[in-house]
Amino acid sequence: MRKGYLGLDVGSISTKGVVIDEDNRIIAEKYIWTEGSPIKAVKALLRALKEQGGDFTAAASGVTGSARKLVGAMLQADVIKNEITAHAVGTLAVFPQARTIFEIGGQDSKLILLENGLVTDYAMNTLCAAGTGAFLSSQAKRLGFGMEEFAELSLNSRNPSKIAARCTVFAESDMVHKAQTGHKQEDIAAGLCMAVVTNFLNNLAKGKNIRAPIVFQGGVSKNAGVVRAFEQATKERILVAPNSHLMGALGAAILGRKGQSGRAFGFGAAEMDFETRGAECDKCANNCEIVRFYRDEELIDAWGNRCEKGLLH
Question: Fewest Cβ atoms closer than 10 Å to its Cβ: which of 34, 137, 260, 307?
Answer without folding.
Answer: 307
